[in-house]
Every structure is written in C-alpha cells, then in structure tokens.
Write a structure and sequence with these properties.
Three copies of one chain form a homotrimer.
Chain A (H helix, E strand, L loop, with lengths): L3 H25 E3 L15 H5 L3 H18 L7 H25 L7 E3 L1 H21 L5 H25 L8 H18 L17 H23 L5 H28 L7 H6 L3 H5 L9 H31 L7 H21 L3 H4 L3 H4 L21 H32 L23 H4 L1
Parallel strand pairs in A: 1-2
Helix pairs in contact in A: 1-4, 3-4, 3-5, 3-8, 4-5, 4-6, 5-6, 5-7, 6-7, 6-16, 7-13, 7-16, 8-9, 9-12, 12-13, 13-16
Membrane topology (chains A, B, C): Multi-pass membrane protein
GO molecular function (chains A, B, C): ammonium channel activity
Keywords (chains A, B, C): Ammonia transport, Glycoprotein, Membrane, Transmembrane, Transmembrane helix, Transport
Chain lengths: ~450, ~450, ~450
C-alpha cells in the first residue's frame, strides 16, 4: 500500500530545497542597514527600538499562523497530527521561501534586505498556502502540499506586487491578495483533484469528534483575538488604530450573527460547531481590505453582520451543493470563511473608494490611496500621485479582485494538474482524513482511551 | 422536549438586539480625534503610535477573555462546546454593548468617542458577565445568559461610574468593580434559579474528565500569565510597572500556597485539579484593587498567600456547604476565585489607603487617590482635590465595596427573578451540564473515542 | 502504598519555604527607583514607559514557561495533570527564589532592586529546572522536584554570574547558561536516580496517546512562536533585531530538516510526533548563544539545519542507546532538544568569536563582547575593556561551556544523591508516569470517555 521509495525520494527533494534556500540566503540576503551595528561615533539611542515597534504585532501574527491555523484544522477526528504538524512544516518552509521571493521583487544593488519587516511579510505570505490547505485538508500527501506551497507563494508574491504596486489598490488587511487568492487557488486545486463520480460521498472520518472540536476552538479563539493585529500590521499612523477598531467590531458583529443564523438554519435549531469555529472569523476577512478606511463603527458592524450571515449560509447550503454537484470538496469550508467574505471586502472597498475625498483623508491619502494624490482639484499635488479620481479608484479595486481571481484560479488549475497527472502519489479515497498513513500513531489508542 | 419555536424566537430577538446596536453605533459613535487623519499640513509623526502603546496589553486581555475564561470553563466533561462557544458569543455581544453603555456615561457633544481605550474598557466589562456565567455554568439557556449580560453590563457601568468617579475609590485592577460585582451578581442569580429541595444533589455531569481537566488548564495558564496585563492596563506611569510586579508576585505566592493547602486538606492528601485551576489565580484578584500601590514585594506575596489559602478552603468547605444548605450551586466556584479574593482586596485597599502620605506618592497621588490631593497640610493643592485624608479614603474604600455588593446582589436577584418567572425557558435538572441540548454533537462519539 | 504522613511533611516544609521567601522579600527587596513615584515637581513623561518597553517580550516568555513547557510535557498519556500542574507549581516557586538569588548577586546598599528586569530574569531562571524536569518527567515526586529546583537555581545563578561577569562570554539567548546547564544537571540527577538493572524496560505509560500528543503540540507551537522573544530579550540595540531574525530563520530551517530526517530514519518512513514536538525547536537552542551576532541569514539557516539533524538522530539512536546501556532514562529527550543543540551553540560561538573584528561590531562590541573592547590595535579603548583578542575570546567561549558542564553535572550528581539516599520518598517503578499517585483523577474516566 505504501511505497516507501516514493516517500523517501519526496523527502530527499525537500532536503535539497532547504539546501537551495541556504545557498540563496548566502548569495542574496543581507541584514538591512538598521539591523547592523552603528559606527562607534554615531549618535543613536532609540532608533533601533522604533524599528521593532511592530514586534508585538508580528508575534500575534505568528500565533495566528502556527497556532491559529494549525489548531483550527484539528477538527477532523483522526487528522490532528497532520493539522498541527503539516501547518508547522509548511509555514517553516514557506517563510523562508517568502523572504526570498518577496525580496527578489524589491532588491537593491542585487541584494535582499533582511529586517523585521521581511519576516512580517513572510508570515503573511505563509497564510496563503495554509488557506489553500484548508480546502484540501486530508486529501493530499505532505509532498503535494509542499510543492503546491512553493508554486503558490511565488505566484502570490507576483500578484500582490501587481495589485498593490501596479494597480495601486488598497488592501490593508490583505483580503484580496491573501484571502481571496489563497481560497480560490485552493479550490481550483481541489477541483482538479476531485474524486471520480462514484466516490463522492463524504467519508465518516470527514467529521469531528467531541475532543477534536474543542481543540479546533483553540485555533478559532486565537485567530479571533489576534485578527486586529493581522489587519493593522501594515497600516500607518492613525490608520493602524482604525484598522484595530474596525476589525474588532466587525468580528464581534459577525460572531453574534453567526450564532443567530446558525441556530436558525441548523437541524433542530441547534448550534453547529463548524459555523462557530469558522463563520465567527468571517468578519475579520470581510473588513480586511477596508479596515483602515473611515468606515465608522456602524460600517464595521454592518460588514460583520453581512459576513457572518453569508458565511453560515455558505456552510449550510453552498458547500453541500458544491460537494454533491461539482464533486468539489472543501474540507474546512475556506470558500465560506475566506473566499466569499473576501469578495464582500473587495466590493466594500470599491464602494468606500468611490466616496473618498482628499478633505477626509488629508495626509493619509498618500499612504492609503497613493494613486489618488493630486486628484479632486486640490492645489497640492503631493509627491506626484497619478491624480486618479474616486470613481476610477473604485474601478481599480474591482479590477484588482478580478485579476486576483483569474490568477489564483488559473494557477490553482495548473498546480492541480501537475499534482494529479505527474509523478506525485495521490491518496486513495480510503486513505483520506487520517494521520496513520504519514504518522506513527500510538498503537494502544483504541483500547486505552 | 425541545421547543424549537421558543428557541427561534429567542435567537430572533438577539438578531434584533444586534441590529439595534448597529443603529446606535451609527447615531452616536464617532472615531476619537486622534484616530482621524491629520490635516495635510500638520506636523506629527509618533503621536499616533504613542496612543496605541497599550495595544500589547489589550491583546493580552483579549486572550484572557476569549481563551482564558473560555477554556477555564471547559472542565465539565460534556460542556466544552458551550464553555468555549458561549464565551465567544457573550463576549462578542457584550463588548459592543459596553462600548455603548460606557460611552453614554462619557459623551461629548452628544457623541461617543471611539478609540483603543474604548475597546480596552469593553474587554474589561466583558469579564463581568463571564464571571457570573461561571456561577451558573451549565444551568441556563444561552438566551438567559445573554439577557443577563445585557442587564448586568449596564448595571456594572453605572456602579463603576459611582465607585470611581463619585466615591473616588482606587481600584486599579478592578477587583471591586469587576470581580466582586461579577461574582456576587452571578451568585444572586444562581440563588434565584436554585433547584427545588428534592433536586439538590450534584449531577454526575457536574464534574471533569481527564481530558476536560487538561483543556481547562489552557484557560488557567493563560489567565495566570496575562493577569499582570489586566491589572496594569489602566495604571499610569510608574504605577503600571508596580502593578505588573505586584500582580506577578502575588500570583506566584498564591500558586505555591494553593498546592500546599490543596494537598493538606484534600482526600488522601492528593492534589485537586479544581484548586489548581482556580485558586492559583486568586492572587491576581486579591491584589487587584491595590496592585499599583506601594505594597512592596512582601506585601504582594503576603496578599497572595492569604488569597490562595482562603480560596482553597472555600472550595473545600464553603462551596459544598452552600450547595447542601442554601441549594446555591456555584459551578466554577466563582465565590472562591473572584468573590472572597475581591473582598480581601477591598480590605487591603482600606488598610493601605489609611497609611497613604503625600510624601510617599508624590505626583502619583493625583492619579491614584485624586480625592486626597490637597490633604495632609501640604501647600500644593494640585488641581483642586477634595483634600480627603487617609482615614477618610480608607472609609470610602470600604463604602465602595459595600455599595458594590448591594447593587450586585440586588441586581442579581432582580435579574434572576426575571429569568425564572417570566417567559424564559428554564433548563430541567436532567438537561444541566451537557452540550447536546443546544449543540449538534458528533453522533459516533461513544463508539469512536 | 502511600505514606500520607511523609506527603504532609513535605508540603509543610514547602509552606515554610514560601514563608521564608516572604521574610526575605520583606528584609531585602525594594522597588527600583524608576518604579517609585516621581517627586511632585519633577519633569518626566515617557521615561517610565520606556522602562517597560520589554514588557511584551516578557509576556511572550511567560507563555513559553507556563504554557510552552507545561503543555510540551503533556505528551505522556496519563501524566497531563502533573505536566501542567507541576510546571505551574515549580515555576511559581522558582521565580520568587530567582528574584532573591539573582538579587543577592547584585545588591546595592544591602538591598535588592525590584523592577521588570528582575522578573524577566526570574522567568529565564525558571526555564532551567523545567528543562531538568523534562529529563526526569514521571519518575520523581513533586517534593523531589521542588527541592531540586531550589538547589539548581542557586547553582545556576552562580554559574551564570561566573560565565557572564567573570569569563565575559557572550550568551545572549542563554544556550550555555540556561539550556546546557538545565539539560546536563537534569541528566546527572536522572543518572543518580536510574532504575536497578532488572527494571530498565520502558513502561507502557512512558508514551503518548493520540489526544496527549495534540496537547503537546500546544506547547511546541507556543515555544516555537515565542522563541525569538526568549533569545532577544536581553539583547541591546540592533542586536535585538538580529536576535529575532536569526532565531526565526534557524527555527524554520530546523523544522524543515526535522520533518525530512524524521521521515528518513523512522519506521516505515512515517513521521514521529516526538521529533516534531521537540527537534523543531532545536534550532532555537542552537542559535541561542550567537543569536545577536552577525551570522547572516545563511549562518542562521545552517545552524538550524545542523541542529534539526543532530536532534532527530539523537532521539532515534542515542536516547534508546542511553536507556539500554546506561539505564539513563530521559523522558522528554532533553539531551536532544537542549543538551546537544546547546553544545552546537557553544561551538558556533567560539567559531564566530574567533572572527570578530572591531570594524564589524563597532559600538556594539561593548555590549556583546565587553572583554574585547580595546583590542585589535584600535585607538579607542572605550570604557576600559580587557583588550582580549578574538582567538582568546573564542577560547573563553569554550572554557565557559566546559565549566558550565562541570558545574551542572557535579551539581546534578550531588542533588541526585541527596534525593536518592536521604529521607525523600522515591517512586517505585509501577508508580512512574501516572498522575493518580499525586492527583485526584476522575473515577468514571475509563467508562465515560
């Protein structure tokens, strides 16, 4: 049943990848100037401290990536080793790759600058393949996941560069570039790897046990709590505080809504842990792109209510429909947690962008909508913006999400085809959603517990 | 057995509450000035950053509320979904309500200012009904809990205003206004909802399993670790660092004492997880009101030793007595973790207040005991304090806790009466302490695990 | 089988120890000047805030000590209460003792200064006996552990003083003074307490269950995530940011390597949770001593790859060999997670020290290698350094680890002898690795779950 030789060669390739990373770091990566010792006679003091003022937020994001994502995916009854272990494995590989890939897009003098900012960006990039992994959870080998990650992160870095630096869209919390990209890429891969039509039933291991559901709540609650850090880490000035406030309120409103809608649409009006674990977080995704804008508390709460509703309804009706009709399994329901809420966020960003005025955003326009600087007939053409007007910016927001979807789905289909039709081993239906094919599992399990 | 119609109407009412919140946010809440963009020509830089310097402490408190409280209550063997889920639900509802309620008490020009401080206050307010929930855990419907929360938080905001702004008591870590209020309010509700005398035995589900006890330790350890943030977040200047140090030392001493006393009084001198999960934290409550005072390390340690001892003895002797004689069930023992330690803190605050001199507290007197500014015959009557003397301040501290108890118990009895005698569905004895009446629970549970 | 009287007397002694601490705090410990209120007429503002700028990192370390170590050791199937509970107990005792012991080495005017720095140091000291506990896990009574801790921390403080202040070695992340010391001290105690030759087989409880392994991953992931805080908290200036970056990259590389090597050497090429839980962290230990040096990203990654490889091979081959041939049980494999990686770190520190030039480190030389200031023929003999040259510093690094090993192993043997041959109760073989001898364990366990 197992082919140890294939496994061995997969892991050997990964070791070679790690060694290639080592060589690339050696050739291209250097500490940024502020990370180097000062000249003996320089006056200094607190400037280094200032540089690491985002360290607490970085640590919050670390918890989201490694504990949040990892434990959120432990909900499957016999897939907890893989959920926590592969998350750790993938994230450790991807952060190195992301430092390199994002670095190559911003090289100076042929070298990549390494600073705290690099690893903040790397952690954010790690979220992308972890979201895709959610769609595929339990139906791929670790080698497939890791190859997917390598390709996906490269494409993510390119698409992000395009969206933020070419189209100049706003996407403070990354709902477009991170969440939509990761979700639709993963779903496209899942579509390519879908089971044959006679094997489409949901397996009995594709569900939770009482204990595994509580483990998953560790992931949910840490993601909930630290989401404001994720959304605000790249915001500047007062925009950072608004990102915190808006994200917090949107999450709170989405959470209340999730419980209500879950009870209303579920069997016997009982609450469903799948909704509680996931849809409560939809508010964080849906507010992501616009979190640093002047939404007002009511704007954030409204977005949260919409996101919670759409997400629960997606779990209740859309996911089963996709499984039954498209044979598209989405184990964690990333379409409902990341996909649709990210679309809501993109639409919201177009609406809010269409109403932006210089008078409102003042000095922050430069940070948030750099392409709009110089527009609206203001005298001060600060720093040579493109002078794009509000309607045009709104159009670019929609164009940004459209291009992102196109690249994500195209890249996902291509990746899925590679994983399916080339030499990779594919799991059989009866190997799905269980740890024991890739992990040593305690033998006495069934007797002792 | 279930009445879906009643459930549905309860959840629909909650959705209406959420929408009312949305409208109130729209009508009354505006970003504080520092959260808005600066005028283009303003000179600025780090001022916004300064404003969010408490963000890391806010995040620690978030973890305490959502993970700490949530997992601490997972110790019941079949109530883990409810413990983590209802904590999330209640906290998400309460934080919104608290922003509004506390805002109404400090409006400017008819508007509520929204800033990081608002949501720090909201998180602290969320602790109050979660403490009360601990007393009632497993014996109410979620709808009852949520209605209790709405009323309790409004009353909490009023009592806090009274204690801090009218009586001018010190209560840096909130032991009086948060812990005593939450505990005695919850106990009063529990008294009203107590079982009839022939149903008073402790049910077999009112206990832990091996796994659920370890889940609860997640809550305990996060509460332990972040408690210094809770106590210090509202302290100013050097008082903040003292709050951190005193809380840390008090917790450490309470923890050692808890283990010793637990072993000495328990059956066969074995340690009891209930004590370890809860009484270790009593040091954090007992030092709360006085945590920013000049206690000295020995003062903090002494308070911790007393708190640990009282709390364990409470669990061992007082709680069973109350269950047997008053039919007052206190599922999590909030009287031992929050109630009595808060009383210790209030008494300690009276003792320390009676010894305060201007010479000792210097410029911090204004922050800590504003009503005492101008007393003690000092020449400098700074900012028009009331010139209250030390003995008088001590009296006010005791008056503050007395009024708090009165309002909490009165409010709790009233709330309990409403929950019992109006249209709310009450759980029957055999529905207590189990998730399955409100949650979809995996069917194959007993066979598979 | 149990001797309640012996237990009682042990716990009574511990209470006396806590009271002695109280007295020592009262006699010797005072708030540091910056923690006291300012004189009324002083101009001040942000200086106090600056003092607590390390608070977020302190909290990260708190999580590592209480949640990280505690949950990492829950992997044993029936020892979860002890793992989390005794960690809490020991750490609470040790932090108090460490404030005193480290304070006695730095008294001013007969008094110990208490500030945030004191409790950061105390938390780091708490790691030492927790590492040793890992070697002994499940084979000692709590009283033995606590007595060991008291002695070990005193010796640790002395050795650390010797290494850092007398030998002037660099050890930013404490791999020499904390990890090597804790690991080899614990192994020496384990050697003294080793079973008689006819009882050497590994008990069936000396392993994990499915659930306990996932609990352990909570510990692993929090240690992983916050390790950069542990390594960087004592670094100054830009060295702090380098410590963060180097630790992060080393951990990432060690993690990828761990998965690969684990799969290659394990039975049927399946991944082993023991490796994933522990060896992934070896990168953090191995980079510890040198984390603030100018390693470059490639240096950090290379150290991580070596550490991951050595650690997995240690678990796979060396630990079973030590158990079989030396009867030296090492329950958590601290030799593979802390011992050998710390040796790697010490060797790396000698190599990097041998290449240090003033031109490279500029103003930071004073912080990192104070004994080298004034060397290399530079004109500026800043602050009277010893003018030690690079080769000589490399020698001191090796001397530092050698002396540390000597003191740790000597102290451990002595401690082990005391625990074995004096009045302490020793656990019998069939009492090993189970909670029920010291904890009240739910009775209905086997039936209900």
């Amino acid at each position: 049943m197992h082919t140890p030789a294939a496994k061995v060669s997969g892991y050997v390739v990964l070791m070679i990848v790690q060694i290639i990373f080592l060589v690339l770091f050696w050739l291209f990566v250097r500490y940024e100037k502020t990370v180097l010792p000062l000249a003996i006679d320089a006056e200094d003091a607190g400037s280094a401290n200032e540089h690491v003022s985002k360290y607490p937020q970085f640590q919050d994001i670390q918890v989201m990536i490694f504990i949040g994502f990892g434990f959120l995916m432990t909900f499957l009854r016999k897939y907890g080793y893989s959920a926590t272990g592969f998350t750790l494995f993938m994230a450790a590989l991807v952060v190195q790759w992301a430092v390199l890939m994002k670095g190559f897009l911003h090289m100076e003098g042929g070298k990549i600058s390494l600073s705290l900012e690099s690893i903040i960006d790397a952690d954010i990039a790690a979220a992308v393949p972890l979201i895709s992994m959610g769609a595929l959870l339990g139906r791929t080998t670790p080698i497939q996941l890791l190859c997917m990650s390598i390709f996906e992160v490269a494409l993510f870095a390119a698409n992000e560069y395009l969206a933020l630096h070419v189209f100049s869209i706003c996407d403070c919390g990354g709902s477009i570039t991170v969440h939509a990209f990761g979700a639709y890429f993963g779903l496209a891969v899942a579509l390519m790897l879908r089971p044959s039509s006679d094997q489409n039933e949901t397996g009995k291991l594709e569900g939770a046990s009482y204990t595994s559901d509580i483990f998953a709540m560790i992931g949910t609650t840490f993601l909930w709590v630290y989401w404001p850090s994720f959304n605000s880490v790249l915001a500047e000035g007062a925009g950072g505080e608004r990102a915190i406030l808006n994200t917090f309120l949107s999450l709170a409103a989405a959470t209340v809504t999730t419980f209500v809608v879950s009870a209303l649409v579920s069997h016997e009006n009982k609450l469903d842990m799948v909704h509680v674990q996931n849809s409560t977080l939809a508010g964080g995704v849906a507010v992501g792109t616009v979190c640093n804008l002047l939404l007002g508390a009511h704007g954030a709460v409204l977005i949260g209510i919409i996101a919670g509703t759409v997400s629960v309804l997606g779990y209740r009706y859309l996911t089963p429909w996709m499984t039954a009709n498209l044979r598209l399994h989405d184990t964690c329901g990333v379409h409902n947690l990341h996909g649709m809420p990210a679309l809501i966020s993109a639409i919201a960003s177009a609406i809010y962008a269409s109403m932006v005025t210089v008078g409102e955003y003042q000095s922050e326009l430069q940070d948030i909508f750099p392409a709009m600087v110089g527009s609206n007939g203001t005298e001060t053409k600060i720093m040579g913006g493109l002078g794009r007007n509000a309607t045009s910016q709104a159009g670019y927001q929609l164009f940004g999400i459209a291009v992102t979807l196109l690249i994500a789905i195209g890249g996902g289909i291509l990746t899925g085809a590679v994983l399916k039709y080339t030499n990779f081993r594919n799991l059989k239906k009866d190997e799905h959603h269980q740890d024991e094919h890739y992990w040593e599992v305690p033998a006495a399990e069934n007797k002792e517990e």
